[in-house]
From TrEMBL:
<dbReference type="GO" id="GO:0016491">
    <property type="term" value="F:oxidoreductase activity"/>
</dbReference>
<dbReference type="Pfam" id="PF01266">
    <property type="entry name" value="DAO"/>
</dbReference>
<keyword id="KW-0560">Oxidoreductase</keyword>
<dbReference type="InterPro" id="IPR006076">
    <property type="entry name" value="FAD-dep_OxRdtase"/>
</dbReference>
<feature type="domain" description="FAD dependent oxidoreductase">
    <location>
        <begin position="46"/>
        <end position="391"/>
    </location>
</feature>
<dbReference type="InterPro" id="IPR036188">
    <property type="entry name" value="FAD/NAD-bd_sf"/>
</dbReference>
<dbReference type="GO" id="GO:0005737">
    <property type="term" value="C:cytoplasm"/>
</dbReference>
<protein>
    <recommendedName>
        <fullName>FAD dependent oxidoreductase domain-containing protein</fullName>
    </recommendedName>
</protein>
Amino acid sequence: MLATSPPLPTTFTLSSLQTCKKTKTTPAHCSSPPPPPSPMDLQPKRVAVCGGGVIGVCTAYFLAKKGASVTLIEKSSVACAASGKSGGFLALDWCDGGPLASLARASFNLHRSLAEELNGTESYGYRPLTTLSLTVTESEKQSPPSRDKNLPSWVDGPARGLRAIGSTETTAQVHPQMFTKTLLSKAVENYGVEVVIGKVDSVGVEGGRVESVVLEGGRVIESDSVVLALGPWSGKFEMLSSLFRVYGLRAHSIVLEPKEPDAITPHALFLSYYPEQGGKPMDPEVYPRPSGEVYLCGMSSEVELPEDPEQIVGDPESLEVLKRVASTVSSHLVEGEARLKAEQACFLPCTDDSVPVIGEIPGVKGCYVATGHNCWGILNGPATGAAMAELIVDGQSTVVDLARFNPARFVGRRRKG
Ligand SMILES: Cc1cc2nc3c(=O)[nH]c(=O)nc-3n(C[C@H](O)[C@H](O)[C@H](O)COP(=O)(O)OP(=O)(O)OC[C@H]3O[C@@H](n4cnc5c(N)ncnc54)[C@H](O)[C@@H]3O)c2cc1C
């Protein structure tokens, strides 16, 4: 009953059930033939993209490249959250066999072509990588097992069970913040995207069709289409949370600057790490970057999402564990041999079925969502953005079949739940 025709408020608010009344009204009795195309129909489509993470920025870039007139709205700063603090690891075929397979493959290839187009090697640290899986047991630090000669020389800790799980054909990396910022500056310079710093408070809807975005403080941005790409904060948006759950999973990371950066080779490490004090193995990841820095991440848990992305703090114990992992894996990463450049936390945007939500929101014409990319948002940003641009401008996506990601899959479920 509730599934097909929910009542449509004129404005959907971010934080509460309160709705703001709009003054503009449309006569309900129009039954005359459609008017001839007006000069307005020939104008580029005005699209407001809400959220300056990798998903919002990729969407803005591809929309503007297709000729739309795009305003990107970010409440804090571009790539201030997960899109600036993630690993930036990319894999061609790791999602094969699952619902993300075609999105991941299309995105991996788009990353390669974007890197050529935008000089990604120089501007955001794009490079192919070899990827290894290892078992590391902290208690074996003093008497390490015999060394596998195929280990990269800087991995001189107690490692066993070495396996190559990705090659330079199938795995790569970007610096996620530099990638997101580079793409946005190209979108601004080459395609005229306007960037507004402000908090999206509500989406104005008239007669079941989106018509504006309202910012905190009252500024109204008139739009033909709106894209909500708010990462884990999407869950705070009533229009979305009434349909499906998006929640944040906090994960930690550190960035180290070794004294001898040239010793660190382009090998990403996926660890099964057995801590000294026992307990379950952990699965931290280690990504050396072309700059010589080494990024480590892991230690995730569901905690409350702060309203302000700048107020996200990490759990000191989890950050300590990552430092211990670094010093166990490599003598180049122990305190004194490497400077701690950053210790931080951020939130993965997750959905209950672990599949991103990409498409038009049922019952609100012109209002789209792109979120829930979990641990693959940097990889899947480009194909998500390109597919969204096609969906909004052409009416359908050829880059990726978006059926599996359609928000309509939740219709009925959440309310029944
Ligand atoms: C530790 C860690 C490591 C990761 N490693 C990888 C990896 O190696 N490879 C990979 O592919 N992915 C990785 N990810 C996942 C990836 O980072 C995320 O999936 C991706 O960044 C999500 O992007 P987003 O644009 O959806 O969200 P976010 O980056 O969270 O961006 C959302 C933006 O919306 C803004 N916003 C929120 N509310 C409002 C509002 N009301 N008005 C205006 N703006 C608003 C926020 O300020 C924020 O800038 C990792 C994530 C973590 C946490």
